[in-house]
Amino acid sequence: MSDPLRLGIAGLGTVGVGVVKIIRRHAALIEARCGRPVEITAVSARSKSKDRGVPLSTYAWEDDPVALATRADVDVFVELMGGEDGPAKDATEAALAAGKHVITANKAMLAIHGHALAELAEDAGRSIRYEAAVAGGIPVIKCLAEGLAGNEITRVMGVMNGTCNYILTRMESTAQGYNALFVEAAELGYLEADPNLDVGGIDAAHKLAILSSLAFGTQVNFDGIEIEGIQRITLEDIRHAADMGFRIKLLGVAQMTGRGLEQSMKPCLVPSESPIAQLEGGTNMVVIEGDAVEQIVLSGPGAGEGPTASAVLSDICDLARGSFLPVFGKPSKTLEKAPAAMSASAAPYYLRMDLKDRPGAMAKVAAALGEAGVSIDRMRQYGHVDEAAPVLFVTHKTTSQSLAAALEGVAGTGVVLGEPVALRIEHI
Ligand code: NAP
Ligand code: HSE
């Protein structure tokens, strides 16, 4: 019988416990598929005494994840603690220095330190695998790195944060506002320890940064992403967008242009009949376009114990079979440093603003849009609320630069109350 692949697992929370359960439940299946057994040697978490609902007494226990990562009887260090720095990064570096492969679900660590860690791994002749870091149970990393290896990737898009999608779809289905549904998501345990990672668009941007590196052969560039969260989306926006034939999604878009790498993670309107508009709750969807394949659409559960552990098992099985690639698809020394480019491609926009209810107000706003070269496609005015007249515009295609100039002009008219909401419309 072949030698077993021996795992050291640090982090026994949602994902870690899920991994332990699958390894126990499917030991024979995994051995048959990998040609060798997969065993857990040792585990680590903060509390040794916590009941985690799975038997752990047969595994050695380490309080210190670094000690776990460097044990002689561990071949692969499985990092499932989280956090971009701290114990996750320390133990990952220690594991690589000790000649272990690393598997992680930690998108924050990879988005910030991915390039440096990839260099460490490749210098050590080892790999970092991270299928679970992006889009939960969807095998999008394998798809980009292997299934689409013969393509020049032209664009990657998607909904990659289940919590935001849950809040936005529940706003529409329950007619409750953002604040109430934020509380509901928190009560259901959906929010990250720092909720701003979810609702601020940062978690989804971490994932987009990782996909961009793989797709375009560039160094991970999280700082180059234009990020906007969902906190300013109101029930009115959801309703008005629906009225105009759209739904609102926190949408990531990455594409390489002659000016550099465009990456944005922002709430956008998508046509109600498009596949991405149909996504409900925590489901994720990633759309990849390549010169040969044209377009593929992957969708599935973006989080949770089973789906995320399923993705970790994909990495475990690959390593058990002896299969591993450079961390971001190409040797890290060949990954280019792509300059970040502001989105310059033209798109229609949804604009919502409250006008002072006085003669000529609408004309002034229309003139300000026109002076900046922004052409109105459709316009609606809704019932007055006190002194305010809520007005919606859908523009013809325009650039974000022209739109910014138009909004500056609109602010100067003196007839707009508060700050207008401007959301890009993406036709996917
Ligand atoms: P979690 O439920 O909060 O579990 C974290 C685990 O790490 C806990 O067992 C905790 O120990 C342990 N831990 C934290 N700090 C530690 C330290 N200093 N030393 C040892 N152990 C430590 O987190 P999770 O949801 O499983 O997420 C784990 C990773 O997967 C994160 O990177 C997350 O972003 C990623 N991820 C999660 C999901 C998901 O659906 N949950 C999906 C995709 C990716 P105690 O239990 O003793 O406190
Ligand atoms: N907070 C993340 C989400 C977990 O809501 O999608 C999965 O990465």
CATH architecture of the largest domain: 2-Layer Sandwich
Strand content: 15-25%
Q: Total domains, how many?
A: 3
**Tally of extended strands?**
16
CATH classification, class level of the largest domain: Alpha Beta
* Helicity, as a percent range: 25-40%
Q: Which class best fits the helix and strand makeup? A: alpha/beta
Which residues sit in consecutive blocks of at least 5 with pLDDT less than 50? none
Rounded to the nearest angstrom, the distance between the terminal CA atoms is 50 Å
Which radius of gyration do the C-alpha atoms yield? 24 Å
Let me know the largest β-sheet.
10 strands, mixed
Please, what is the average pLDDT? 95
Q: How many helical stretches?
A: 14
**If you consult CATH, what is the topology of the largest domain?**
Dihydrodipicolinate Reductase, domain 2
**What is the molecular shape?**
elongated
Describe, in plain words, how this protein is organized in 3D.
This protein is an alpha/beta fold and 428 residues long. The chain has 3 domains: 5-134, NAD(P)-binding Rossmann-like Domain (Rossmann fold, 3-Layer(aba) Sandwich); 140-302 and 333-341, Dihydrodipicolinate Reductase, domain 2 (2-Layer Sandwich); 349-425, ACT domain (Alpha-Beta Plaits, 2-Layer Sandwich). 36% of the residues lie in helices and 25% in strands. The longest helix is centred in the N-terminal third of the chain and has 17 residues, at 107-123. The protein is elongated. The structure holds NADP nicotinamide-adenine-dinucleotide phosphate and L-homoserine. The site of L-homoserine has 9 residues, from helix 7.
